[in-house]
Amino acid sequence: MAAAAALEAVAPTGALWGLVQDFVMGQQEGPADQVAADVKSGSYTVLQVVEALGSSLENPEPRTRARGIQLLSQVLLQCHSLLLEKEVIHLILFYENRLKDHHLVIPSVLQGLRALSLCVALPPGLAVSVLKAIFQEVHVQSLPQVDRHTVYSIITNFMRTREEELKGLGADFTFGFIQMMDGEKDPRNLLVAFRIVHDLISRDYSLGPFVEELFEVTSCYFPIDFTPPPNDPHGIQREDLILSLRAVLASTPRFAEFLLPLLIEKVDSEILSAKLDSLQTLNACCAVYGQKELKDFLPSLWASVRREVFQTASERVEADGLAALHSLTACLSRSVLRADAEDLLDSFLSNILQDCRHHLCEPDMKLVWPSAKLLQAAAGASARACDHITSNVLPLLLEQFHKHSQSNQRRTILEMILGFLKLHQKWSYEDKDERPLNVFKDQLCSLVFMALTDPNTQLQLVGIRTLVVLGAQPDLLSSEDLELAVGHLYRLSFLEEDSQSCRAAALEASGALATLYPVAFSSHLVPKLAEELGRGELDLARGDESTKCSRHLHCLQALSAVSTHPSIVKETLPLLLQHLCQMNKEKGHSVLRKVLLEDEVLAAMVSVIGTATTHLSPDLAAQSVAHIVPLFLDGNVSFLPENSFPCRFQPFQDGSSGQRRLVALLMAFVCSLPRNVEIPQLNQLMRELVELSCCPSCPFSSTAAAKCFAGLLNKLPAGQQLDEFLQLAVDKVEAGLSPGPCRSQAFTLLLWVTKALVLRYHPLSSCLTEQLMGLLGDPELGPAAADGFSLLMSDCTDVLTRAGHAEVRIMFRQRFFTDNVPALVQGFHAASQDVKPNYLKGLSHVLNRLPKPVLLPELPTLLSLLLEALSCSDCVVQLSTLSCLQPLLLEAPQVMSLHVDTLVTKFLNLSSSPSMAVRIAALQCMHALTRLPTPVLLPYKPQVIRALAKPLDDKKRLVRKEAVSARGEWFLLGSPGS
Amino acid sequence: MVGGGGVGGGLLENANPLIYERSGERPVTAGEEDEQVPDSIDAREIFDLIRSINDPEHPLTLEELNVVEQVRVQVSDPESTVAVAFTPTIPHCSMATLIGLSIKVKLLRSLPQRFKMDVHITPGTHASEHAVNKQLADKERVAAALENTHLLEVVNQCLSARS
């Protein structure tokens, strides 16, 4: 018995011994994982592994020792969680000791220490001991990159789990680390090292006397100058390094005295990226700095920012310069001051004003805008800065406006004023009397009114925008100002054709201001418009003169523009209805009815009824549905208060075609109800809808019926009733699609029912979609079926909307794509030549609507089809394929580059298509091609540039324009300066 | 060929030039959208090609600096000729050759080969007008200038969309 047990104990260790030998002496890699797996499964303990390693750990040959330790370290990396505290202590002692060993051994020792640094059972005190040993024994920067990375990992691990203990080391830890990373060159290691420094600072480790050393050892990399090698497998971008270094440099005010001079120096650099990085870093610093840190550097900082914004040719430098000034000002505004300290904000702003003010007086010169932008960047930083600057600048600008008489100069000045006024909207002032704009109100108003009466359209436009901004300031404008303003807006609303933009802006401004000042508009504008409308009616009655007619139209547009507040709508709506009645009297009785039944009018009513219905309270919804459904089904008009309806209302029976059109209104109502509102007489309603949907007389009402049916179907819970309705629809479609007069109606019903089911993932949807796909091969309905895929994939506005409580699953497009695209592709290959375009069109509709991230991985399989579609002779298919490929070129250049040869050839072919739209789209694709990686394109450059010379001489200007921009981009490829 | 220099740091020769309004996009007419009607190349089309060229030292276009104007463009589509006169912002502008070269290159890249193009300084607006014009008219010198990496770089920057 005892012997057997002993044998059992020996057998595994015997196997272990073999594995160890294979690894150490046999130089095989596999056994390491095997041993680790066995330790994990409990076959051996770590102690047994050490014992089995025994002699190799003490072997006089360093390579053998290294190999032995490597095995142990690899096992520990996988099994560190199994270690007991006692084992950890021994292992640490062993490894620390080995740090003194031969340099060949060190990498494996570090791996082992990394494993132990992950160990939960590490007793207190050992982390510090390991670090001290490393600091003392290892010269990190002479190790290879991987091993340096291991050391950083050990530190990162300890910092994550042993923070308190490491802090016990005091500044020694910081100093040790500084020495360790000094001279690091590898971007991978730098990312980790920067992270460590950032944690040192942000977790409040003691930096002791080493603040400047820590700054030096990191700031020597600033500004980052790194270009990833081509095909870099590590994927480290320049931007990663920039951001992680910036996080370090801008993490503490203690670096300020060293960093700010460096930034000032680098902003002055000749290299664009260095300028940008410096300005952005300055911007980041302002988040943690205060007045104390900035004090000594403010004049130089301002000089640098000013110089950049004044001189630069790069919009990015300008934007970053302005952002930095904004943060500087915000920082100065935010700082809490001691009572006796001087507030630097005032002197800083005074400096800015002094350097910029005089440029504002030269509205024709280049520096006017950079100066205004600088002032606005500073003024946008705080309420205090805003007051300081505007109280200084506004009087100047008001004066300058009057000093300059040319419209374009005035426009520049007013545009600057507008910028400052907009900034005021950012700050709310509690006390009405404190509002700084009050003082300037009268001058501003008179200036705006001058602008509004100026003959120059551009100045008028700025005037209108300024008026809106003034109006948005609470309690600024008096009722007299408003009356004047409304008078101007009235006049501008009737401007003639050549100042369309002004009229449109005036209408928009009226709408915006009317919501704020409904009383002013209803008392001063609506009566005038009413009067004008009355005059127009008389004029129209006297005969059609086109000018009168356009005035009339403008009047109606003005009325609709100001109808943005309920109280105004209460006045304008009766006016408009009365106007309609008036027209009705003059033009014969049928006009009003005809007007109200027009497609656009009904569509507008559908949108109103739909929106109103979605907001009904449950009670009111139930009450309404109990009236409305019987109204349409049974002609029950009893609930209408002024019931003077001349004939019976029977839209579903033999009622007039006019009545049938009103089913659209029923659709708007019942399809927007919440799902839990029960619809009375549902069965009858659905049957009537299906009947009407396939009635061939009027496409408008049959489509409305089909949509209404689909809208209701979408919301019904699964069950027998739903199945019955579905069967009803399927039968109707089947019968209707057979040769006869109502094939197109049956198709419309099929399309909408399919959409209703696709949206809710109903199992029958796949079968209906198949049927739809079958119709792509139908000579008569094929093109309509192809367009139907666009409807299936798009969002409706009137029925089947989320707002209208329809069941719309989020991923329906993706699902539709996955379920159906293979069949579409297959259908395409099987289809006869004359219907192939239908498949391509259907496919391109599906692809166009699909979110790009979903589409990109599928591209490789579809691309060949799309490329084939480019050879299809149908212009519509060519066009939709080009419009599908164009965004893909921009967003998935890597995938597309595989096909560059085909793409270049086909695009160039299509650039001489007889269709102008295709030529334009093809040239736009040629342009988009330049986004592909340059090395891929360069071989084609001479050929493309030669070929694109031809469309430069196209007879159509719009084509030439695209050719010019495409060819220009191709010239820049791989050329210096691009 | 002279030119280049002064693009990076350092003081600008004319730090605060007059600026002019940009004309809007050319409105698209019904005729332009009609497949059948040919649109001939006119002065506005040429002007649209060159007006958005960037100035080598300001974040402004040649149009905004009034260096190019539509009235200084002469074109005849049937005779395949284009003449563009440009006006440096100051009479001693050292950028004049570079600006002229940019205009020339833009036209070379954008117009059909049949066109004969003449780019010159508006008479009486530059100290070394004659010398600059001579350089711009010399095909070999233009070609040689474009072999010069530094010059090509600056020209390309003038012709790129601003970043």
From TrEMBL, chain A:
InterPro entries given in the database record: ARM-like, ARM-type_fold, MMS19, MMS19_C, MMS19_N
Q: Which UniProt keywords apply?
A: Cytoplasm, Cytoskeleton, DNA damage, DNA repair, Nucleus, Repeat
Recorded GO cellular component terms are:
cytosolic [4Fe-4S] assembly targeting complex; MMXD complex; nucleus
Q: Looking at the record's lineage, which domain of life comes first? A: Eukaryota
The MMS19 C-terminal domain covers 590-930
Q: Which SUPFAM superfamilies match?
A: ARM repeat
Q: Mind listing the GO biological process terms from this record?
A: DNA repair; iron-sulfur cluster assembly; protein maturation
Cite a single Pfam family from the UniProt record: MMS19_N
> Which locations, inside or outside the cell, does it occupy?
Cytoplasm, Cytoskeleton, Spindle; Nucleus
**Is Nucleus given among the entry's keywords?**
yes
Q: Does the keyword Cytoplasm apply?
A: yes
Q: Where is the MMS19 N-terminal domain?
A: 50-311
**Major location category of this protein:** cytoplasm
Q: What does this protein do?
A: Key component of the cytosolic iron-sulfur protein assembly (CIA) complex, a multiprotein complex that mediates the incorporation of iron-sulfur cluster into apoproteins specifically involved in DNA metabolism and genomic integrity. In the CIA complex, MMS19 acts as an adapter between early-acting CIA components and a subset of cellular target iron-sulfur proteins.
Q: How does it assemble?
A: Component of the CIA complex. In the CIA complex, interacts directly with CIAO2B and CIAO3. Component of the MMXD complex, composed of CIAO1, ERCC2, CIAO2B, MMS19 and SLC25A5. Interacts with CIAO2B; the interaction is direct. Interacts with ERCC2/XPD; the interaction is direct. Interacts with ERCC3/XPB and NCOA3/RAC3. Interacts with RTEL1; the interaction mediates the association of RTEL1 with the CIA complex. Interacts with BRIP1.
The entry sums up its family as follows: Belongs to the MET18/MMS19 family.
What is this protein's name? MMS19 nucleotide excision repair protein
Which species is listed as the source?
Suricata suricatta (Meerkat)
UniProtKB/TrEMBL annotation, chain B:
Alphabetical list of SUPFAM superfamilies matching this protein: Fe-S cluster assembly (FSCA) domain-like
Would I find tRNA-binding among this entry's keywords?
Answer: no
What is the annotated signal peptide range for this record?
none
Q: What does this protein do?
A: Component of the cytosolic iron-sulfur protein assembly (CIA) complex, a multiprotein complex that mediates the incorporation of iron-sulfur cluster into extramitochondrial Fe/S proteins. As a CIA complex component and in collaboration with CIAO1 and MMS19, binds to and facilitates the assembly of most cytosolic-nuclear Fe/S proteins. As part of the mitotic spindle-associated MMXD complex it plays a role in chromosome segregation, probably by facilitating iron-sulfur cluster assembly into ERCC2/XPD.
The UniProt subunit note reads as follows: Component of the CIA complex. Component of the MMXD complex, which includes CIAO1, ERCC2, CIAO2B, MMS19 and SLC25A5. Interacts with CIAO1, ERCC2 and MMS19; the interactions are direct. Interacts with KIF4A; the interaction facilitates the transfer of Fe-S clusters to KIF4A to ensure proper localization of KIF4A to the mitotic machinery. Interacts with CCDC117; the interaction is direct.
Report the family membership: Belongs to the MIP18 family.
PANTHER family, per database record: CYTOSOLIC IRON-SULFUR ASSEMBLY COMPONENT 2B, CYTOSOLIC IRON-SULFUR ASSEMBLY COMPONENT 2B-RELATED
Name the gene: CIAO2B
Q: Name one GO biological process term.
A: chromosome segregation
What residues does the MIP18 family-like domain cover?
A: 45-118
Q: What is this protein called?
A: Cytosolic iron-sulfur assembly component 2B
Q: Which UniProt keywords apply?
A: Chromosome partition
